[in-house]
Every structure is written in structure tokens, then in C-alpha cells.
Design brief:
single chain; paralog of FGE (formylglycine-generating enzyme); Four Helix Bundle (Hemerythrin (Met), subunit A); 2 domains; globular; 444 residues
Length: 444
């Protein structure tokens, strides 16, 4: 096989990978929008979220801008709707008042865009531009669509009415008792990446950072453990809350995680239209950063920093290197993590032993996004690419970093270096947390 043939084979493999990822994302978008009627698609189920039909057309608009126009150099399909589907031009609460495409128009538009995008994928050289190296632009658009699919899943959680989404139950916890916490050794490790082909700008570049030894919860905090905080009066005790968290809790009358309700026989919740008793062994979900922070204080612990989270998720003490994922470098499989909307809830603590990190931390990928104590910022040497609005405009103390993905995150949109962020008040997202504490003298 000649060098040219090798390069061609590599390019074809890249095209196949990109096509598969785009196709999987579109199948999910279709499932989320086909699950409801047109009236539900155009309705705003919460002012925190866009109508589902806006998300669908926005997915197509971004794909057109990057793959059809920029990478492909093709003529615009619908330049008249660029402003309508620009997320920075219109707040979510205002989007229902815009002249949105109808459900039928939106579906037709995204189909036409996809046909042209696939044509571009077949023809464009995968090199010569940073956007096309390793099919980066196609990976970026795939991740964007999957991120909006997770947003649409959160909208489904907020909608009223009978259940329309269904999925099998996640696997049970494996037999055996896990320790409550594990020791992560101190020292330097490589954080971020310079090599992951589809990594986004805020994950770059790889850099060395040192952390002191610390103890990390083996699993995310469960609903049962969190109910103990509630039942002890934790929401009424200002001692556990930061000043900002206490002001938020009292000012908004928050008394429990979102979607939870206390009944005579305990805590219940609404999950995708089903009213059910909380599952004590599942990671708690739909809590804000402020609630997570207060629980940690009540438990005599703290939230981990982002660097601590990533070291627990990636560092292998035996080899001294950082892995792509806790379990190694291979892509996530069903045995590793609860991802991709395969299930419609977090799995019980301890359900994925094959996904544990070398230090014995479980479920760092999937199940629930995990709040960290770190504000979003750029790494040393950060450079915005391909546009500032992806992450740079969010840098600062207003946003807290979340890590690890949730049951609603697709494998294409998560890895050990992936960084999510949101306002510390957010509760409609699939967010939970785990806690940490400093190691004592001589530990680690």
C-alpha cells in the first residue's frame, strides 16, 4: 500500500466516522421532535427553554453556516433566517415571538441542509485547513447537535402531560460494598488536551498542573443521601449556605431539588411525566451549584475543583499519564457509562464497575453532570477557535464548570477533558455532584 493510498484510507475512515456521528445525532433529534405533536413543538414549556421547533431549526442553521457555507463554500440556503436562529441575538424567553419556521418547514430545512452537508463531506479535502483537519468541523457540528438534543431532553422533562419518551431501566448496582471515598494522590498531571481531534477550544491546550492529595466520593451523591440533608432541615439552616446561595434559596422559595415533592410516605419526583418515589440509590439530579455546595458543607466536605475532578477521571498513577476516559483510551461502551439517552434516569451508584478510574472512582462519565467549585476560564495558552462565542465570552465568575456528562449526553459530546458550564442557579439541567475533602498529613 502506497503512502497516498494510506492517506486516502485514513480520509475515508474519517468520513465514515463523521457520517456515522452525524447520522446518530439526527436520529436522536428526530426521535425527540417526533415524540410530540406540532402543538407541543411550537409551545414554550418553560421560559428557561426554547420551543423544541426552535432547537431543531437552530441545529440546521448552524450546520448550514459551518458545513455548507464555510467548509463547503456553497451558496446559502436560507440567509433570511440567520438572525432568528442566532442564539446570541434572542433570549430563550423571547424566541416564541419570532417568526419561526413551522414544524414542517423546520424538518424540510434540516433535511435539505443535511443532504448538502453529506455532499460536502464526500468531496472536501480533510486537511489544509484547521476546520477540516481530522474532520473537525463535522465533529464540532455533531457535538453541537447532540448538545441541543440534551437541551431538548431537558425540555421534555419540563413539559406537562402524559409520558412520551420511554427507555429500558439502567443496570442495577453490582453486588459488593464500595468505599465511601477514595484517596487521589497529590502531584502534577496533564490536564486538557492538545491531541484529541474533536476537542473544543476550551479543552486546549494540554498543560501540567499540580494538586495536593485529596479524598473524593467514590460515586456521585445519591438521592437517599441528599434526602438526609433535606430531612435534617438543611434547607432552613443558613449555616450551610453561601451568602449568594442563601439569597437564591430564600428569594425563590426553594425547598428541595427541582421536581421533588414531599408526601406523607417520603420524597417523590416527576420524571418525564411519571410521578414516582425517589430511588435512594440513584445519583441526585436537578440540583443547583448552590444546593450542591450547601450539602457539601453540611456533610463536612466541599465540592472538588475542576482540576481535582479531571485528575480523578484521567490520571493513572501506574503509568503517570492522563487517559482519555477513566477506564482507558477506548470509546465509551454500554459497560462503561450511562450515556446517550439509552436510559431516562441515572443508574444506581456502583452500576458501572468497568468504568471506574485507576484510583477507584466510579461513574465519573455519564449519569449526572457534576458541579465543581471552579469558575469557567481559559487554560494557559487558550486560543478561541473557531469563534469566540463558543466559550470565551462565558469566561468569568458568573459560570461554574460541570464535568462528566449525564445520561442525556451522547458519547460524541463527552470525554475526560470535556468542559460544560452554567449559572450556579440552574436546576433544569441533568446536574448532580460528588464531594471531596483535603487529605491529611502523610496521606497521598
Amino acid at each position: 500500500m502506497t503512502t497516498t493510498e494510506s492517506k486516502d484510507l485514513g480520509a475515508e475512515e474519517l468520513r465514515a466516522r463523521a457520517a456515522e456521528a452525524l447520522t446518530r445525532a439526527r436520529a436522536r433529534s428526530d426521535a425527540l421532535t417526533d415524540a410530540v405533536d406540532d402543538e407541543d413543538l411550537i409551545r414554550q414549556h418553560s421560559k428557561l427553554m426554547s420551543p423544541l421547533v426552535w432547537d431543531l431549526a437552530h441545529i440546521g442553521s448552524q450546520e448550514e453556516l459551518w458545513l455548507v457555507r464555510d467548509v463547503g463554500g456553497r451558496e446559502p440556503l436560507r440567509p433570511d433566517i440567520d438572525d432568528i436562529y442566532d442564539a446570541f441575538q434572542h433570549a430563550r424567553a423571547d424566541r416564541p415571538a419570532l417568526p419561526l419556521l413551522s414544524p414542517a418547514e423546520a424538518r424540510s430545512y434540516v433535511r435539505e441542509v443535511r443532504e448538502k452537508a453529506f455532499d460536502v463531506l464526500e468531496r472536501v479535502p480533510l486537511g489544509g485547513r484547521r476546520l477540516t483537519e481530522q474532520a473537525f468541523a463535522f465533529g464540532m457540528v455533531t457535538q453541537h447537535e447532540q448538545q441541543h438534543d440534551e437541551t431538548m431532553l431537558a425540555t421534555h422533562q419540563l413539559r406537562q402531560g402524559d409520558p412520551v419518551l420511554h427507555a429500558p431501566e439502567p443496570p442495577p448496582a453490582r453486588p459488593g460494598t464500595l468505599p465511601a471515598e477514595v484517596l487521589v494522590p497529590g502531584g502534577a498531571f496533564t490536564m486538557g488536551t492538545s491531541a484529541e481531534p474533536w476537542a473544543l477550544d476550551n479543552e486546549r491546550p494540554a498543560h501540567e498542573i499540580a494538586v495536593d492529595a485529596y479524598w473524593m466520593d467514590t460515586t456521585p451523591v445519591t438521592s437517599g443521601a441528599y434526602a438526609g440533608f433535606l430531612d435534617s432541615g438543611g434547607y432552613d439552616d443558613e449555616r450551610w449556605w453561601s451568602p449568594a446561595g442563601w439569597a437564591y434559596r430564600t428569594g425563590n422559595g426553594i425547598t428541595a431539588p427541582r421536581f421533588w415533592k414531599r408526601e406523607q410516605d417520603g420524597w417523590w419526583r416527576t420524571r418525564f411525566g411519571v410521578y414516582e418515589r425517589i430511588t435512594a440509590t440513584e445519583p441526585v439530579v436537578h440540583v443547583s451549584f448552590f444546593e450542591a455546595e450547601a450539602y457539601a458543607a453540611w456533610a463536612g466536605r466541599r465540592l472538588p475543583t475542576e482540576a481535582e475532578w479531571e485528575k480523578a477521571a484521567r490520571f493513572d498513577p501506574a503509568s503517570g499519564r492522563s487517559r482519555r476516559f477513566p477506564w482507558g483510551d477506548e470509546e465509551p461502551g454500554a459497560e462503561h457509562a450511562n450515556l446517550g439517552q439509552r436510559h431516562l434516569r441515572p443508574a444506581p451508584a456502583g452500576a458501572y464497575p468497568a468504568g471506574a478510574s485507576p484510583t477507584g472512582v466510579h461513574q465519573l462519565i455519564g449519569d449526572v453532570w457534576e458541579w465543581t467549585s471552579t469558575d469557567l476560564h481559559g487554560y494557559p495558552g487558550f486560543a478561541a477557535f473557531p469563534y469566540q462565542e463558543y466559550s470565551e465570552v462565558f469566561f468569568g465568575p458568573e459560570y461554574k464548570v460541570l464535568r462528566g456528562g449525564s445520561f442525556g449526553t451522547d458519547a460524541a459530546a463527552i470525554r475526560g477533558t470535556f468542559r460544560n458550564w452554567d449559572y450556579p442557579i440552574r436546576r433544569q439541567i441533568f446536574a448532580g455532584f460528588r464531594t471531596a475533602r483535603d487529605a491529611g498529613p502523610g496521606e497521598g
